[in-house]
Structure formats: C-alpha cells, structure tokens
Specification:
The complex is a heterotrimer of chains A (about 600), B (about 325) and C (about 300).
Chain A: H1 2-25, H2 39-44, H3 53-60, H4 87-96, E1 101-103, E2 109-111, E3 127-131, H5 146-155, E4 160-162, E5 168-170, E6 173-180, E7 183-188, H6 202-213, E8 228-235, E9 238-243, H7 250-254, E10 278-284, E11 288-293, E12 306-311, H8 315-324, E13 329-330, E14 343-357, H9 367-375, H10 379-386, E15 391-393, H11 417-426, E16 435-441, H12 447-460, E17 465-471, H13 472-478, E18 491-497, H14 507-510, H15 522-533, H16 537-553, E19 557-569, E20 573-574, E21 589-590
Parallel strand pairs in A: 3-12, 3-13, 16-17, 16-18
Antiparallel strand pairs in A: 1-2, 4-5, 6-7, 7-9, 8-9, 10-11, 11-12, 13-19, 14-18, 14-19, 15-19, 20-21
Helix pairs in contact in A: 9-11, 15-16
Chain B: H1 30-59, H2 62-66, H3 73-82, H4 89-101, E1 107-108, E2 113-114, H5 115-150, H6 155-167, H7 172-186, H8 202-228, H9 231-238, H10 243-282, H11 287-296, H12 300-335
Antiparallel strand pairs in B: 1-2
Chain C: H1 2-29, H2 31-49, H3 51-54, E1 73-75, E2 78-80, H4 91-127, H5 129-144, H6 147-158, H7 162-189, H8 192-199, H9 204-241, H10 252-259, H11 268-295
Antiparallel strand pairs in C: 1-2
Helix pairs in contact in C: 1-8, 2-4, 2-11, 4-5, 4-7, 4-9, 5-7, 6-7, 7-9, 9-10, 9-11, 10-11
Classes of the chains: A alpha+beta (about 600), B mainly alpha (about 325), C mainly alpha (about 300).
C-alpha cells in the first residue's frame, strides 16, 4: 500500500523541486516567441507544463541564439498595426502583422496573404457623344471639322496643347524655344509611346510635321501649316521646326499638328494610332466609332474608361436619344430645345458669324456700300430671336475682348436702315442692285434662317437679295472662288472660329494671297505680315489693332454675332465646355 | 400576257387601284421558263448598268465631282485624263463592264474605300427593314383584305376599305415623322431613329407596313370579292355551309396564290424606293440612306454601286416571284 | 362604201352610248358624293391660280418676334390659323402658296407621262409583233429598276430643278399607262366594230385616234386622276430628300422637309402640310375610284 503511492508522491516532489529551481534560472526570457524555438528546447519541455520553451533552451546553448535587438527612440504607444504608421511602431508591427499584398525589397508589389488579385471594373456604360455627320476618315492630320475632331482629339496629341481656358501649354513637348530666326526647337517628353507600341521620338515628330507639309497630302488643316518649311530630328528627343523667316505664330500652329507614328500612311484613315489617353477600338460604319482608355498613357489617367461617337444625322433624333438616355452629349442643340434636354450648357466661345463680301465685285467695291449693308442688319434682333439669346453682336472684328489684337475702339455698326439707304444713295446706288447670299447647309446653327433674314433686311434697303443653298462641302470650295471669276459669290454666310485667341488666326482672310482673302488691301496685308514676324507680343497687339481699324473703314464682311456653342447633356455627364470647340474626354467625368 | 399587274413600276412604289386579276402563265416546260426568265433578268440588269453609265458619263462628268470646284478647265481636263475619262465612249463602256464583272465598282471619295464595300455593309440593314415591313403589311393587308372581301359592303368592309385607301394616300416619309412625334418623342415608347436594338425596328416597319398594307389590302380584297361570287361558293353557302368554313376550305386556297404573289410584288416595290425614304427618316443605315448621303456628297461611285446592287436585287426578286408563281400555278392547274 | 363605214362606226358608238343612259341615273344618286369630292379639288385649283385670294399674309413676310407660334395664334401681323415657322412666316399662307407648284408639277408630269404611255400602249397593243415585244421588254426593264434610286442619281448628277423633275417623273409614270392601254387596246382590237372598221379600210392612224382612243379614254382618265396623286407623293418625297424642288420655290413636300429639324418644338410645320398632301391624294384616289365606277370602266 504505501510503496506505490508513496513512490509517486516522492517522484512528484522531486520533479516539482527541480522545476522550480530551473524556472528560477530562466526568468528573464518571458516574451512569447512567434517563431519556433530550437527543437532541443521543444523536446525537453515537460508535458503539461506551461513553462516557456526557452527556459529549457537557455541553459542548453546561451551563446548562439542571442535575439536580434533593434533600438528605437520612442516607445510605440500601441502595438495595433492598423492604428499607427510611425517607424518606431512599424519596426515591431511589420513583423507581427501581414497584408494581402506586400512589397519586395525592390519595391515590387507581390502576393502576400492573397495568392492573386484582379481589378473588377464596375459596368458603367461608356460615354456616348452624338454627331450629325460621320467622319470620313480618322486621320487627325487630314480633317478639321468638329465631327471628326470629337474622336481624333482624344486619340492623337500635339507638341503643344491648350487648356480649357485656351491657354497654350506644353503637350508632348517638355520645352520649346525660338532657336533662331527661322527655327523653333522643341524638346520632347520622355517615355511616351504610340498605341501600337512604337516610341514617340523626334523621328516620329519630324515625320508627322513633314507629312502634313507634303504637297500631295490633302488636309483641311492647310491654314495651320503656312510658313512652315520642314522639320528635322536633331537627336532622339529634340526636333527642329524650320519656318519661312520669323514666324511668331508657330507655337499656335504646332498646337494643331497631331503627332502620328513614324512612317504612318493611309491606314490611319481606318485604324488611327496616336499617343493620346484613348485608343481606337472599333468603327461600325454609319453607326458608331468606339475607343477605350489607353493603359499606357503617359499622363493622368482619365476617369472615363470608354467612349463612343454615335452618328445620328437628324438633330431631332439626337435630342430624342438624349432624352431617352441613349447619348450623353449632343453638340448642336437648338436654342428652343434646351428646355427639353435633361441638362444643357452653353459657352460664349470663339465663334464669330459674318457674311463674307467680295470687295472686288463691281457693285461692292465702294466701302460705303458695304458699310450700308452692315447697317441694314438688326443684329440684336437676330441674337434675341433666332438664337434665343445664345449669341450677341460681335464688335466687327472676329475677336472678343480677351484676344490679342482686339481693338476696343472698333465697335459694331449700328442698326440704321434709313442711314443705310442714305449711304447707298451717297455711293451712287440709290436704285440698288440685286445680290445673292450663299449659304452652306447643315453646318452652322440657323444658317438658313439667318441668311433668309439678311436677304430680307437687305431687300428692305433697296438691294433685292436671294438666298442660294449649297451642300456643305461644295460650299466650302465654291466660296473660295474670288472675283473677277464669274462664279465668285457676292456674299457667303460663314462662321469663323478663333481658337488661337489671336488676330493672326484671320491671316488667311486679311492678307492678299490668303486662301479666303477677298479684301485685297495692301496696308492691312503689311500689318498682318509684320504681326507674324515679330515675337514681341505687345507690338503684335498694336499692329493687329491698327489693321482692324483699317478694315473697319473698308469692311470685307457684314459682321454679325459672337455665337454661343450650346450643348445638350445627360444628367450623369460632368463637364464644362471648352472655349475652343474641342471635346476632350479626359476633361469629362460621369457622376454616379 | 407578260404584262401582268406586277413589278415595281409605279412612281412612288404604288400602283393604281385597278383590280385586275393576275394572268396565268403559259404552259411550257419549267426549265424553259427558268432559262428565259434568267436571260431576261440578265438583259434587264445590263440595261440598268448601261443607263447608269450613260447618265453619268454623258450627261454628267464625274471628273467634276473629284476636282475642287475652283479648279480651272485645265485642271479638270487633267483629272479627266487621270481617270481615263477622255477616251472614246465605247472603250470606256466596255472597260466599265469589265470592272463591274470583276467587282470593281470604284472608290468612294467620301469614305476612302471601295464603294462596293460601303454598299455591301448597308444591304443587310435594308433587307431587315423590308422584311419587317412586308411582314406587317402582309399580315394586316392579307387578313384585313380577306375579312373585308368575304363580307363586301358591310360596315367592316366600308370602314377598313376607306382606311386602306387613306393608308396608301399618305406620304410615307410624313407618316414616319408622325409616328416619331407621337410614339417616340411624346410617348417615348420607341427610339426615334437608328438601328440599335429590337425596339428600333418597330416604327420604321410600322410605317412601311401601313402604307404597303393598304395596297395589299386592296388587291386581296378584290380578289376575295371575285372569288366569293364564283358559283362554287354560292352553291356551298346555299347548302348551308357557314362562311368561315367555305373560306377556310376553298376560298383561301384559291386566293392564297394571289395573296402570296401580291405580298411578293409589294416587297419588290418597297425596294423601288419606299424603303429608302423610310431609311432616311429613321436614319436606318441601309442602302437608301447610303445613297442619299452619297448624293449629298456627290460621291458618284457610291451612288452607282447602290443603284446597281439594288437593281440586281429587284431583278432577282422579280425572277424568284415569277418562278414561284409559275410553279404554284402549275400545281394548282394540274391538280385542279 | 364610205356611208357604210360611218353607219357601222356609229352603230358601235351607239352601242357604247346606250350604256350612258343608265349611268346618268346612277349619277343623280351619287351627286352628294361627287360634290363632296369635287369641291376640295376646285378649292385647290383656285388656290393654285389665285393664291392671294386665300392667303392671310404674304408668305415671304418675316417676323422674327413671332417665330414658331403654334396653330391658332395671333401675332402683331394678325391671325395665324396654322402657326408660324422659324422666321415668323405664316404657315397657312405658305401652304396656299405651295399649292400652285405642287399641283402644276403633278398635273404636267402626269400629262407628259400619260401621253407617252398611251402612245406606247396603243402602238404596242394594236400592232403587236416585234414592236410590242421590244416595247414591253423596255417597260419591264424599267419596272425592274429601282426607279426612285435612279431618279435620285439623275437629279444629283444634273442638279435638282423643276425642269429636271418634269423629265424624271414622267419616266416613272409611262409604264403604268402603257400597260393598261396595251391591255385595253388588245382587247378592243378583237371587238366587232374595230374589225369592221379595218375591213372597210380605215387607216391605222384614224383607227387609233377616232375609234380606239375614245373607248379607252375613260380608263385613261381614271388612271390619270389617280396617278396625279401618286406623282404628288413622289415629288414630295424627292423634295423632302433634297433632290426635288429647291427653295425659294415652295411645294408641300418642301414644307414638310423644312419643318423636320424642328419636329420636337414645332410639330405643326411638318404635320400640317402633310395632312394637306395626304388629304389631297386621298381625294384624288377616291375621285378616281368613283369616276371608275361611274364610267363603268371596270366592266
């Protein structure tokens, strides 16, 4: 009886005593260890005891397993890794906590607690913009009409570009200077590539510009390449643009020369490749053109992931589509329809309407006749009724106050039909003479009605006028025919946009030899040419002001209105219209 | 008699309401008929092509379309030479035929690609529209015409008859606009234009269906009226058979041929012009819209291609319907 | 001999004219219907000839402050039963103005096309043979063409104008007349009095002119009345597409086209001219059908 129980109790007492003695030796290492301790310590740990394993390890090998010690200046306030981000805490917490993804020593993002991940983009319907006419080509260098630019401006880029307020800023160029009298030097941004993977470098920049200069290349942007002779790559990131003498307006021109890949040709018509924030996706002829965001874009990633240009020829249908939520933006909404749109915005942009007069036509040669014609038109009435207030008379200059060259002393001709008749009589045309006003259909808002009104107004002062309608493309070329050609038009109703915010934009109209010139005035020509040759902005401003003063005495146009651009928008579109009639999706975002 | 009341002859796709019954084809071996019809169709196509060529090159001058309008006479002459337009007429004509045979229909100046591609892409849309339209027209016209015909001068007949005449009096493009105003703009039930989903075909098809349905109604009605005055119907009625039974068993079979061929010819008539006006109104991307856009841009090759393709389709359809009529009629006559 | 011919001829004519007596009775019963149909036509004719009598304003008079007024509005110029357009011009007066050109084009085109078609049909039906085959092949070829498209092609190449329209529209029209006349003349060729006239040696010209034509005339007239309506629709369609009549000429089709861009804000500009056009065509259609019944042409 005593032998078994007594033996056990004695054994227990001995072990207990030994343990107490042992634990007394290892009392300084009580911090729990996350990492496994040495296997020796583990196996010698007594079963059922809660003594820390190192207690047994410590006496075995004290010299080898000295723990790592890191000194910190301040004690962490908390060991909750989610709460703190200061280094002193992270020194500890980073070793105890882990994250789903983690970084290697080189900073590379790799898997951590997660084995894999993917971005799930929410299914937001792409932005849809309606246009009235389908672009004929997607080669940005070839076209300049709004319906094409809506697409190409988002896919291609230029060396210099404009902000929404019209300020000229750097684009694909990182700097530029007037290198010498007939050269401008542009330094190109690094790390930019085209959508097809090829690098954007000086060779492609030079190629792009030379392509537009090529005589055989047909482009609507011809007015932007005047006085540019050629471009050459100096090194891989520098390109020189050579001009015809001093060309003060080259930077403004450059902002309208899109960059294309080196060697690109006619394939751009259907497969556009640029450097822009969006890449071409598909073209369903007659229906729509789509684009998706460029994941390798060098700049800020836009918020809208995809967009579509939808061709809807009829403006009524465009409005219905807007109301139905099928499109987000329509570019030409009628003033009367603004109430019907979910949202609309208008901007007093850079559009100036006028009637271009051919000053060499016999009956129109006397400036008094043309001034009388200006006085016959009630521009306020036009702005108020035909345009529902979305326009205002312009000050007879194709410029607004903030533009370079604006002359505050030049004012619109007053509405004075009686005075007009008197002036006509003074010029020897008391009996009047017939006129025809030509207008291209479908391009500008209310162009036909405006022409009809002008015809009637002129008829009332004794100049019986008829209206002739043209198909738009025919009109463009026909309106450039000048007297004394028999087909030259007396009067052509046009709008002109001044997206340069600079009088130089009107050079083609004002200077002898310009494509649109019907003024034939040497003094004005001299002033405009001087304005293009000096880099002194103040002097340019004065020169152009003088030019406009001269033109005011001998007008080449019936000046009409500064037209607003009115847009119909969906409720989810967040966008402020630009002043320069460009539609950059990167500047838009979708609410909700 | 070959001049039966078929074909897309009339001015706007509609024919006078003269209720003549279709002619019977002659009793000739079927192969002979097929061969003859195909030959006729080919000749017709040749005439179409020739007319277009003559119009374009003799009456107009395609060089002008390609030259900028302020081009001098020398520049136009240069372009003429470039295009080979200053060679003799016969040379150009045969070269033209050769081009067409090899599928070269010219290059569209507007779209910067072969004109035939543009036309080919547009054809399915037109086919879809016309099929939907003829479905509606055929349904309403045939059923309505039959029902009206079996009870002539009843109230139902008078009312529907009047409406069918009204239906073919309205300008189809105007009707389309009216439907847009009511159902798309004001009620918002359907999209106002374009070819985007199933709902966008409703209004265009309805427009075509109403106008052409009126015509089908007229023809079916008159054929039915003629049929029920025939002795066998009178006899059957006097024996006590009710009208629906008589109709179902006999009248339908006999007028069925008329109905089918009327629907067929009306379908061809749509291709004669009505469908294209509707395409314009609804911005439906078919051949008609392509042609009108091409006309606005003076794109001659697109115009030419569209007319030839549409013409070939019309000729082919006429051929098919003729043969079908021939076949069915044979069966009836040999079985009857 | 000559006397016999005349007797025979008159016999035939008498045989036809006894029918007319019955028809006269039928006429009285339908007087109300005729008046109902005729009066709008007469009204339209007056509008075409003397538009000023019916217009409330000068159709070209602009009033920008009275733009886009809905029907039954009054402006500083006066009352506008159908509203005003984008320049403040009275729509009703424009519609009256457009009557002249619309009707003129329709009637003249039908006359030209009809005459041509009748000629072809008579020759074809009477003479037969290779001439008939050739002409019928020609007509079939034309009916097989999408004539509307060809019209667009032609008009866009030549430039749209009223003159060109008056050439294009009849070409769309003549096969219809030719077909009907051909069928009729073939039928008549077999008839007794024609055979008698031939036997007596009547010359083909005289035969066609004095014998066949008068008998075919009712049918031609019916066709003409109905086709006038169709030509109106065709012209409206071509003008609507922009290849027909051009401004400043006014037709109803152009008015419909002009109102289209403003469909959402000014429905009356498109819809009302279309109603007028539809009603006119409807009247012509009904008129033709009544006339058909009256003259027994269907019989």
């Amino acid at each position: 009886m005593f032998s078994f129980r007594n033996k056990s109790i004695v054994k227990l007492a001995v072990i207990l005593t030994l343990s107490i003695v042992a634990s007394g030796c290892g009392s300084d290492s009580e911090v729990p260890s996350a990492a496994g301790s040495s296997s020796a310590a583990a196996t010698t740990a007594a079963p059922g005891t809660t003594a820390a394993p190192k207690a047994t390890a410590a006496p075995a090998e004290p010299a080898e397993v000295e723990p790592l010690v890191i000194a910190v200046g301040t004690e962490p306030s908390t060991l909750d890794a989610q709460a703190v981000n200061d280094r002193n805490s992270r020194v500890f917490t980073a070793n105890v906590y882990e994250t789903l993804l983690t970084r290697t020593a080189d900073g590379e993002l790799v898997s951590g607690l997660a084995t894999g991940y993917e971005a799930i983009v929410p299914n937001v319907a792409p932005l849809v913009i309606a246009v009235g006419t389908e672009p004929s080509t997607l080669d940005a260098q070839a076209v300049n009409d709004r319906n094409s630019r809506v697409f190409t401006a988002n896919v291609y880029e230029t060396l210099l570009t404009r902000t929404a307020d019209g300020e000229l800023v750097l684009g694909l160029a990182s700097s530029y200077e007037a290198f010498d009298e007939d050269t401008w030097r542009f330094t190109l941004r690094d790390g930019v590539s085209f959508h097809d993977g090829s690098a954007f470098d000086a060779d492609s920049a030079a190629y792009s510009i030379n392509r537009m200069l090529d005589e055989d290349y047909e482009t609507q942007r011809s007015s932007y390449i005047k006085n540019i002779v050629g471009a050459e790559a100096v090194d891989s990131s520098t390109v020189d643009i050579h001009t015809n003498g001093v060309n003060a307006v080259l930077p403004m021109q450059v902002a309208q020369l899109p960059m294309v890949p080196n060697g690109a040709g006619a394939e751009l018509n259907e497969l556009p490749v640029g450097t822009g924030p969006y890449m071409f996706d598909s073209w369903d002829r007659g229906q729509s053109i789509t684009a998706v965001v460029n994941p390798n874009y060098w700049g800020l990633a836009p918020s809208i992931q995809a967009f579509e240009i939808r061709v809807i020829p009829d403006s009524q249908t465009q409005l219905s589509a807007l109301q139905a939520g099928e499109v987000d933006l329509i570019l030409d909404i009628l003033p009367e329809q603004t109430e019907l749109a979910p949202a609309f915005k208008s901007v007093a942009a850079t559009e100036f309407s006028f009637v271009h007069l051919d000053t060499r036509k016999e009956n129109l040669s006397d400036p008094r006749v043309r001034i009388a014609m200006n006085m016959a038109i009630d521009k306020e009435l036009m702005a108020e009724t035909l345009y529902g207030g979305f326009a205002r008379p312009n000050q007879a200059q194709h410029l607004s106050e903030t533009m370079l060259g604006y002359n505050p002393d030049v004012k619109m001709f007053p509405y004075d039909p009686e005075g007009a008749k008197a002036l006509l009589a003074e010029a020897g045309h008391a009996d009047g003479f017939p006129l025809t006003i030509h207008v291209g259909v479908g391009r500008y808002l209310r162009s036909e009605e405006s022409a009809e009104y002008i015809a009637q107004a002129l008829t009332e002062i004794g100049l019986p006028t008829t209206v002739k309608l043209w198909e738009w493309n025919e009109f463009r070329s026909a309106s450039r025919v000048k007297a004394p050609e028999p087909e030259a038009m007396d009067m052509a109703y046009k709008w002109n946009s001044n997206e340069w915010f600079d009088a130089a934009r009107m050079t083609s109209f004002a200077t002898i030899g310009g494509k649109s010139n019907k003024l034939w005035n040497e003094d004005v020509t001299a002033l405009f040419e001087a304005g293009a040759k000096t880099l002194d902005q103040e002097e340019r401003h004065r020169l152009y002001q003088d030019a406009w003063a001269l033109i005011h005495e001998n007008p080449h146009a019936i000046y009409l209105l500064q037209q607003d651009l009115i847009y119909g928008m969906s409720e989810r579109l967040d966008w402020d219209p630009r002043l320069d009639d460009e539609y950059l999706i990167s500047g838009m975002s979708l609410l909700s | 008699m070959r001049w039966s009341n078929r074909g897309s002859s009339s001015v706007d796709g509609k024919e006078p309401q003269l209720e003549t019954a279709p002619d019977f084809p002659s009793r000739q071996p079927i192969m002979g008929v097929v061969v003859r019809r195909v030959r006729d169709g080919a000749i017709t196509l040749l005439i179409v092509v020739t007319v277009i060529f003559t119009l374009a090159h003799v009456v107009g001058n395609p060089a002008i379309a390609y030259a900028p309008i302020d081009a001098s006479d020398e520049e136009v002459a240069l372009i003429e030479h470039q295009f080979g337009l200053d060679r003799p007429f016969t040379v150009r004509y045969f070269e033209y035929l050769g081009d067409l045979a090899t599928g070269d229909f010219g290059e569209s100046n507007w779209q910067k690609r072969p004109a035939l591609d543009a036309v080919r892409e547009a054809v399915p849309a037109t086919i879809q529209l016309t099929l939907a339209g003829i479905l509606v027209a055929g349904l309403f016209g045939s059923v309505g015409g039959l029902l009206a015909g079996i009870s002539p001068n009843s109230l139902f007949d008078r009312v529907t008859n009047f409406f069918s005449v009204a239906a073919l009096s309205v300008p189809n493009f105007w009707l389309g606009l009216l439907l847009i105003v009511v159902f798309a703009v004001n009620l918002g039930w359907f999209p106002t234009s374009g070819r985007y989903g199933w709902s966008s075909i409703v209004l265009p098809a309805a427009t075509l269906g109403i106008v052409h349905g009126g015509r089908i109604f007229q023809l079916v009605r008159s054929a039915t009226v003629e049929e029920i005055s025939k002795p066998y119907v009178v006899v059957a009625r006097s024996k006590g058979f009710s009208m629906p039974v008589v109709v179902g068993r006999h009248v339908l079979r006999n007028t069925g041929l008329t109905m089918a061929t009327t629907v067929g010819w009306e379908y061809v008539r749509m291709w004669g012009g009505a469908a294209f006006a509707i395409e314009y109104v609804f911005a439906w991307p078919g051949i008609g819209l392509l042609m009108i856009n091409g006309a606005n841009r003076q794109d001659f090759f697109v115009l030419q291609s569209a007319v030839i393709v549409a013409g070939a389709f019309v000729i082919l359809s006429n051929l098919v319907i003729d043969l079908f009529y021939n076949l069915i009629d044979r069966r009836i006559n040999s079985a009857g | 001999m000559q006397a016999d011919v005349v007797t025979l001829g008159t016999l035939g004519a008498q045989a036809e004219s006894t029918k007319s007596v019955d028809l006269a009775t039928r006429f009285h019963l339908r007087t109300w219907l005729w008046l109902l149909l005729l009066s709008p036509v007469v009204l339209l004719l007056f509008c075409a000839v003397l538009p000023e009598l019916f217009q409330l304003h000068d159709p070209q008079h602009q009033n920008l402050r009275a733009r886009l007024l809905p029907p039954w509005s009054t402006s500083s110029d006066g009352f506008h039963p159908f509203g005003t357009d984008s320049l403040g011009r009275d729509l009703y007066s424009q519609m009256v103005e457009g009557t002249r050109l619309t009707l003129t084009i329709a009637v003249v085109a039908t006359a030209i096309g009809g005459t041509l078609g009748v000629l072809v049909g008579l020759i074809s039906g009477y003479f037969g043979g290779w001439l008939d085959r050739f002409l019928s092949r020609l007509s079939e070829a034309q009916t097989a063409m999408p004539m509307f498209l060809v019209a667009i092609l032609l008009l866009s190449l030549l430039g749209p104008s009223v003159t060109i329209l008056l050439i294009v529209l009849p070409t769309l029209l003549w096969p219809i007349f030719a077909r009907v006349v051909r069928a009729e003349s073939m039928r008549l060729k077999e008839s007794l009095f024609i055979e008698a006239a031939i036997a007596v040696g009547c010359s083909p010209m005289r035969l066609l002119r004095s014998h066949m034509l008068p008998n075919i005339a009712p049918r031609i007239l019916v066709l003409a009345v109905i086709e006038v309506g169709h030509v109106m629709l065709a012209e409206a369609g071509l003008s609507f597409l922009g290849v027909g009549v051009q401004p400043p000429d006014v037709t109803w089709g152009l008015l419909i086209a002009g109102g289209r861009p403003l469909l959402a804000v000014a429905w009356w500009l498109t819809i009302l001219p279309g109603v007028l056009l539809a009603m006119t065509v409807l009247i012509f259609n009904l008129f033709g059908r009544q006339f058909e019944r009256f003259s027994g042409a269907a019989g």
